[in-house]
Automatic annotation (TrEMBL):
<protein>
    <recommendedName>
        <fullName>Histidinol-phosphate aminotransferase</fullName>
        <ecNumber>2.6.1.9</ecNumber>
    </recommendedName>
</protein>
<dbReference type="Pfam" id="PF00155">
    <property type="entry name" value="Aminotran_1_2"/>
</dbReference>
<dbReference type="GO" id="GO:0000105">
    <property type="term" value="P:L-histidine biosynthetic process"/>
</dbReference>
<feature type="modified residue" description="N6-(pyridoxal phosphate)lysine">
    <location>
        <position position="219"/>
    </location>
</feature>
<dbReference type="InterPro" id="IPR015421">
    <property type="entry name" value="PyrdxlP-dep_Trfase_major"/>
</dbReference>
<dbReference type="InterPro" id="IPR015424">
    <property type="entry name" value="PyrdxlP-dep_Trfase"/>
</dbReference>
<dbReference type="InterPro" id="IPR004839">
    <property type="entry name" value="Aminotransferase_I/II_large"/>
</dbReference>
<dbReference type="InterPro" id="IPR015422">
    <property type="entry name" value="PyrdxlP-dep_Trfase_small"/>
</dbReference>
<feature type="domain" description="Aminotransferase class I/classII large">
    <location>
        <begin position="29"/>
        <end position="354"/>
    </location>
</feature>
<dbReference type="InterPro" id="IPR050106">
    <property type="entry name" value="HistidinolP_aminotransfase"/>
</dbReference>
<keyword id="KW-0028">Amino-acid biosynthesis</keyword>
<keyword id="KW-0808">Transferase</keyword>
<keyword id="KW-0663">Pyridoxal phosphate</keyword>
<dbReference type="GO" id="GO:0004400">
    <property type="term" value="F:histidinol-phosphate transaminase activity"/>
</dbReference>
<dbReference type="GO" id="GO:0030170">
    <property type="term" value="F:pyridoxal phosphate binding"/>
</dbReference>
<dbReference type="InterPro" id="IPR005861">
    <property type="entry name" value="HisP_aminotrans"/>
</dbReference>
<comment type="subunit">
    <text>Homodimer.</text>
</comment>
Length: 379
């Protein structure tokens, strides 16, 4: 028998990340609404830039990502020297935990928060601390109550995933002002572009020495398959993160695609406007079917069912009809399904199939009631 060579403490406590499903066995041409991807894809400019960069596969990429950082800075009005780029915002989260949290330290995340916060904390040897939310919304007072002298990082997604809810700038500033001096507040702005006029927390970063913002190209830019993210923070923190970053963590294709995408503001505006319109339509359509959701500020809605059994039955029914959504029991929301806002045809299709599911459920319950009545009358 092969002896198990023990990893560092906490590693085996990490639950493997479960991404959104892409396939249903025996079903072709599925509608995938499980990973919050842009249904319109990436802008053509990004595709062309990626293809052009592929001609130099034999060359090492630029190690400081200077052109991409400048493009991001120019578009968002930021300081390029305060930007770091990574393989998705996940890698920036990993850098933060690796550099600032270790054995004996605590990393705070909220009740329904993105699972990579907990995974990255454990991988660094730190203790993840889960803080309750209030009706699926981040609770600033609960976070402050959970802070101790061991707290090193606090992760908040705003807008949040998988709830889609959001807290205001005043609450975020209050949190940043009140956290312990040894602690960094990390604002995950993966869905910030879906909120018109929202800077994701960039202005707060520029006025504090304890706030870092992360962003991604995987959502509104449609580059989930390329994996690019970035972080914005005080120069001393960015310097620390660059010291744990691998020198060639991004390929030239990634850099070129992201640079082209961030400059294509017309594409971003179009995708945001379409998402806002279709999200409102889908939420209203499901509400009329008896499936409520909180007001979402992202590119998905969190559909709430009567209980876990109904949510799972609806998920199974959707799959049988070639539609994949996301169960979120692992995020403490067993009675919910997270549904990506797709294109118009996808939104209409998912609403129609959920309507069919509800009709069948009502007919089934009525059948049981009728059968019970017959049994009683026959007795």
């Amino acid at each position: 028998m092969t002896r198990l060579i023990e990893p560092q403490p906490g590693i085996l406590d990490i639950a493997l990340y479960q991404g959104g499903a892409s396939h249903v066995q025996g079903v072709e041409n599925v509608i995938k609404l499980s990973s919050n991807e842009n249904p319109f894809g990436a802008p053509e400019s990004a595709k062309a830039a990626f293809a052009k960069a592929a001609h130099n596969l034999h060359r090492y990429p630029n190690t400081d990502h200077a052109s991409l950082r400048k493009a991001i800075a120019d578009v968002h009005g930021l300081d390029a020297e305060s930007i770091i780029c990574g393989v998705g915002s996940d890698e920036i989260i990993t850098f933060l935990c690796q550099a600032y949290a270790g054995v004996g330290d605590e990393v705070i995340y909220t009740e329904h928060g993105f699972s990579m916060y907990k995974i990255s904390a454990r991988a660094a040897g730190a203790q993840p601390v889960c803080v309750p939310e209030r009706e699926r919304v981040v609770d600033v007072d609960a976070i402050l109550a959970a802070c101790t002298e061991r707290t090193k990082l606090i992760f908040i997604a705003n807008p949040a995933n998988p709830t889609g809810t959001m807290i205001g700038q005043r609450d975020i500033a209050r949190l940043a002002n009140a956290i312990p001096p040894q602690c960094i507040l990390v604002l995950d702005g993966a869905y910030a572009e879906f909120v018109e006029g929202f800077d994701g927390g960039a202005a707060l970063v520029e006025t504090r020495d304890n706030v870092v913002m992360t962003r991604t190209f995987s959502k509104i830019y449609g580059l989930g398959g390329v994996r690019i993210g970035w972080g914005y923070g005080p120069k001393d923190i960015i310097d620390v993160l660059n010291r744990v970053r691998g020198p060639f963590n991004l390929s030239e294709m990634q850099i070129a695609a992201a640079e082209a995408a961030v400059k294509d503001r017309d594409w971003v505006e179009k995708c945001r406007d379409d998402n806002t319109r279709l999200r409102a339509w889908l939420a209203e359509a499901l509400m009329e079917l008896g499936v409520p959701s909180d007001t979402s500020c992202a590119n998905f809605i969190l559909a709430r069912f009567q209980d876990q059994a109904e949510a799972e039955a609806c998920d199974d029914f959707l799959k049988s009809n070639g539609i994949i959504v996301r169960r979120v029991a692992g995020y403490g929301l067993p009675n919910c399904l997270r549904i990506t806002v797709g294109d118009e045809a996808s939104c209409r299709r998912v609403a129609h199939v959920i309507g069919q599911f509800k009709d069948q459920k009502v007919k089934g319950e009525q059948g049981l009631t009728d059968a019970a009545s017959e049994d009683q009358s026959g007795g």
